[in-house]
């Protein structure tokens, strides 16, 4: 039986359409230590930790479409600082949440919103 998806890929994959594919990929590498190179003619696969995000320029047929993503990181304060240094706009400074996460929120230059969190236990 032929697999219905590539090996190692989850069933749900966020996708971001942007008009500045190279800039967004650079932001993701700078902030999240993301892995992946910009591809021409196909969506760019970016890995953040154990997750995959597809980013593309829409191929001239899709409008830019930002995302709102929750990303667990090893150190939320450091990730927040890197996001601001990379041009992100602070929405929420790092703070402890009652459910055990330390969380911050940043909007990037492409209108994507990134809630970054480190689980500290409940």
SSE layout and pairing:
Blueprint: E1 15-17, H1 21-32, E2 44-48, E3 51-56, E4 68-72, H2 76-85, E5 89-96, E6 101-107, E7 113-119
Question: How would you describe this protein?
Answer:
- α1 (21-32) runs antiparallel to α2 (76-85).
- The chain is globular.
- The chain has one domain (15-119): 2,3-Dihydroxybiphenyl 1,2-Dioxygenase, domain 1 (Roll), CATH 3.10.180.10.
- It has helices at residues 21-32, 76-85, and strands at residues 15-17, 44-48, 51-56, 68-72, 89-96, 101-107, 113-119.
- By secondary structure, the protein is an alpha/beta fold.
Q: Percent range for helical residues?
A: 10-25%
| CATH level 4 superfamily | 2,3-Dihydroxybiphenyl 1,2-Dioxygenase, domain 1
Query: How much beta, percentage-wise?
Result: 25-35%
CA radius of gyration is 15 Å
DSSP strand count: 7
CATH class: Alpha Beta
Spatial strand sequence of the major β-sheet: 4-7-6-5
User: What is the count of helical runs?
Assistant: 2
CATH topology: 2,3-Dihydroxybiphenyl 1,2-Dioxygenase, domain 1
Q: Give unreliable regions as ranges.
A: none
The largest sheet, given as strand count, sense and whether it forms a barrel, is: 4 strands, mixed
Total domain units: 1
- Shape field: globular
Order of helices and strands: EHEEEHEEE
Proper CATH architecture: Roll
Q: In whole angstroms, how far apart are the ends?
A: 43 Å
- Average of pLDDT: 94
Structural class: alpha/beta
Quickly list its features:
122 residues, alpha/beta, 2,3-Dihydroxybiphenyl 1,2-Dioxygenase, domain 1, four-stranded mixed sheet, globular
């Amino acid at each position: 039986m032929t697999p219905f998806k590539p090996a190692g890929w989850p069933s749900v994959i966020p996708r971001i359409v942007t008009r500045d594919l190279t800039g967004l990929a650079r932001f993701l590498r700078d902030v999240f230590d993301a892995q992946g190179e910009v591809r021409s003619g196909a969506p760019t696969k970016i890995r953040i930790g154990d997750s995959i995000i597809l980013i593309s320029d829409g191929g001239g047929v899709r409008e830019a479409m930002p995302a709102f993503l929750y990303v667990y990181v090893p150190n939320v304060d450091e990730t927040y600082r890197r996001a601001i240094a990379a041009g992100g706009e602070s929405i929420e400074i790092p703070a402890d949440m009652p459910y055990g996460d330390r969380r911050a929120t940043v909007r990037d230059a492409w209108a994507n919103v990134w809630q970054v969190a480190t689980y500290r236990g409940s």
